[in-house]
Amino acid sequence: MRGYSLDGGGFKSMKAEDVKKITVIGGGGSMGHGIILACIQGGSYHVTLLSRRNESCQHGLNLIKDGPFGLNKAVERDKITQEQANEMLSRVSVTTDYALGLKDTDLVFESLPEEIDIKMNCLQEFEKYAPEHCVIATGTSAILISELAGSLKKREKNLVGTHWFFPSNVMKLVEVGRSELTSDDTFKFIIDFLVKIGKSPIAVKDSPGFFMTRFINTYITEAIRLVELGIVGISEIDEMCKTGSRWPMGVFELLDETASFDAYYHAQCYLYETLGERYQIPALARKVFKAGYLGNPQLKPGSKGGWYDFFGVEKKYLKKK
């Protein structure tokens, strides 16, 4: 029997050990499929991949099975057995139906593009179909949790922010943001759950970009500006980041190989809108984005490629792997 308890407002709060079913909205994406992997590898949870399009569902399943950080790779690296991989995969289901995907679920991770209207529409669907006790964790990397809560009529206390990092089943850090409307029970629940599946959650205040996005976007933006000014090329920047700062990946390699350029772009637009000139997006970034070069097409279907492809620069880093 699940140990729900009522707070003063009648909200049924949960404990981490009560979770049986999880839904990942946008689970077909580069971050969402990793969240699914983190959940099925971190516990005996049944996880539903919920997406509007059948193609996205299939893409997500393919990444879960055969992606660079998927189950088959884990078997090849002797992290898990084939039997364990098969068992984990058996706990994943897919649907394009929000009513079905949110029925009886205990925890929802939203992993949709960093566009406020898309996320707000998702939250309205959550409020319509998810059970009262269910917590929803938005994956926003920049948007205020309180602003997103504006789309909810009565479930603001169920909403919390979980900013994951790629690959989300490998990287331990999850940046957890709460607004003034997030209940203490919801906040404690998500922290406890993340610890339970092996993550290292760190709490931050509700602010545009929180800490990590402001920090990361600042050095990405400066690197783009230096290319824009003709001071240095993208390959040279990446090489200096790795050999001079001992980073595992350079700035443009990161944007390309993790297909995270569109997340950077939308987040930077929001930071500029909310925080001003300091976060103005470089004209070159806008040019590359509008041209459709969003990163690795294997992770971002429809992308024409990444920064290296846009400039026609040889990907020397691939030869070193």
Q: Please report the distance between the alpha carbons of the first and last residues.
A: 50 Å
Number of contiguous helices = 15
- Helicity range: 40-55%
Name of the CATH first level of the largest domain: Alpha Beta
What average pLDDT do the residues reach?
94
Tell me the number of structural domains. Answer: 2
Q: Note the run of SSEs as H and E.
A: EEEHEHHHEHEHEHEEHEHHHHHHH
Structural class: alpha/beta
Cα-based radius of gyration, to the nearest Å: 20 Å
What name does the CATH topology of the largest domain carry? Answer: Rossmann fold
Tally of strands: 10
Main beta sheet: 8 strands, mixed
Unreliable residue runs: none
CATH architecture of the largest domain: 3-Layer(aba) Sandwich
Give the name of the CATH superfamily of the largest domain. NAD(P)-binding Rossmann-like Domain
Strand order of the largest sheet: 5-4-3-6-7-8-9-10
Describe the global form: globular
Task: Name the features.
single chain; 321 residues; Rossmann fold; N-(1-d-carboxylethyl)-l-norvaline Dehydrogenase, domain 2; 2 domains; 8-stranded mixed sheet; two-stranded antiparallel sheet; 45% helix; 13% strand
Word description of this protein:
It is built from 15 helices and ten strands. The protein is α/β, with parallel strands linked by helices and 321 residues long. The protein folds into two domains: 201 residues, NAD(P)-binding Rossmann-like Domain (Rossmann fold), CATH 3.40.50; 100 residues, Orthogonal Bundle (N-(1-d-carboxylethyl)-l-norvaline Dehydrogenase, domain 2), CATH 1.10.1040.10. The strands form two sheets. An eight-stranded mixed sheet has the order 5-4-3-6-7-8-9-10, with helices on both faces. Strand 3, helix 1 and strand 4 form a beta-alpha-beta unit.
